[in-house]
Write a structure and sequence with these properties.
The protein is of the alpha/beta class. The protein is 42% helix and 18% strand. Bound molecules: nicotinamide-adenine-dinucleotide (NAD) and (2S)-2-hydroxybutanedioic acid.
Length: 331
């Protein structure tokens, strides 16, 4: 029997990421080849944005995707989040050259107060939220605070793009196929302080720190390349990553919707329960396993050496600072 459609809200649906993301959801790459979807495409109440959104909808119609059951086009969050099972919060201003992601806090933070409230009031009772709009960890924290009636476990932010970047860099350096690299992991904030962990990453089952002899590269260029990849793409393209960001969001939601294979984990920013000494309540990039039934857990027992501990302290400090800056938005 065909399952009932999943309703997926995508904010910023007419933006760069939206354009790359929507056909992937509608073609079954996020929820599988048997799962029908209804897309709730949310944009700002602006003539140009709504006209562009209509164009995106026309293109989706022209793809004749069998799994796409309906589309809701709106600038009203009440309509956009009505009964949705997943809310992908992408719509926000991207950074430009020379900016850090948290320079966007003042412009973007307020968006997530209103959207958090609208989700709490109108979404399905089992709604799950994935925040992409930057700075995504703190924006997810804002939405979580604004949506008090939604369990905090439902809120996630995306470090999957960083995980994918780290995996690709390690594979390239070791001269192995991507599939030989597992356990690539990003701790902390999706920012320049994120901690790409090459000790717990594995190449053919062995620590990447052992397989790749070049320790200076691992501690230097590897970490810097992953931390600065978003900025490097902006410098090269003039605009921020879109195809790889949409791809990462498909990975992020699909892997939370399904059960994680035995022995594996994924990088997901979730609300800290104090694991690994991270203050409770921060939205923090952790190794996470999904049970495929809506639940997830933080993988315990990974080793943090002094090098990693020092880096974790810096990303924690940054997240605490961002939280202080946005507290007034929720007053
Ligand atoms: P974009 O400017 O191309 O598109 C953003 C869209 O969001 C626009 O169409 C805009 O009208 C819309 N929008 C703005 N405010 C909105 C609101 N309140 N409700 C609904 N829609 C709204 O930007 P983009 O390249 O698609 O990037 C979107 C965001 O994703 C940026 O903040 C960017 O920095 C972030 N991003 C995050 C990651 C990540 O890994 N977490 C990766 C890439 C980009
Ligand atoms: C990325 O990592 O590519 C995005 O967060 C966009 C950015 O501003 O770097």
């Amino acid at each position: 029997m065909t399952p009932a459609p999943i309703r997926v809200a995508i904010t910023g649906a007419a933006g760069q990421i939206g354009y790359a993301l929507l056909p992937r959801i509608a073609s079954g790459q996020m929820f599988g080849p048997e799962q029908p979807v209804i897309l709730h495409m949310i944009e700002i109440p602006n003539e140009k944005a709504m006209a562009a959104l209509k164009g995106v909808a026309m293109e989706l119609e022209d793809c004749a995707f069998p799994l796409l059951r309906d589309m809701v086009l709106t600038s009203d969050p009440k309509v956009g989040f009505k009964d949705v099972h997943w809310a992908c919060l992408v719509g926000a201003k991207p950074r430009g050259p020379g900016m850090e992601r948290n320079d966007l806090l003042k412009d973007n933070g307020a968006i997530f107060v209103g959207q958090g409230r609208a989700i709490a009031e109108h979404a399905a009772s089992n709604v799950r939220i994935a925040v992409v709009g930057n700075p995504c960890n703190t924006n997810a924290w804002i939405a979580m605070q604004a949506a008090k009636s939604v369990p905090k476990e439902r809120f996630t932010a995306m470090t999957r793009l960083d995980q994918n970047r780290a995996r690709a860099q390690l594979a390239h350096k070791a001269g192995v196929p991507i599939t030989d690299v597992s356990g690539a992991l990003i701790w902390g904030n999706h920012s320049a302080t994120q901690v790409p962990d090459f000790y717990n990453a594995k190449i053919r089952g062995q620590s990447a720190a052992k397989v790749i002899a070049d320790q200076a590269w691992l501690k230097g260029d590897f970490i810097k390349t992953v931390q600065q990849r978003g900025a490097a793409i902006i410098a090269a393209r003039g605009v921020s990553s879109a195809a790889s960001a949409a791809n990462a969001l498909v990975d992020h939601v699909r892997d939370l919707h399904t059960a994680t294979p035995a022995g594996e984990y994924r990088s997901v920013c979730v609300c800290s329960d104090g694991s690994y000494g991270v203050p409770e309540g921060l939205i923090f990039g952790y190794p996470v396993r999904s049970d495929g039934k809506g639940g997830w857990s933080i993988v315990q027992g990974l080793e943090l050496n002094d090098f990693l501990k020092e880096k974790l302290a810096a990303t924690i400090k940054e997240l605490e600072g961002e939280r202080e800056v946005v507290k007034t938005l929720l007053a």
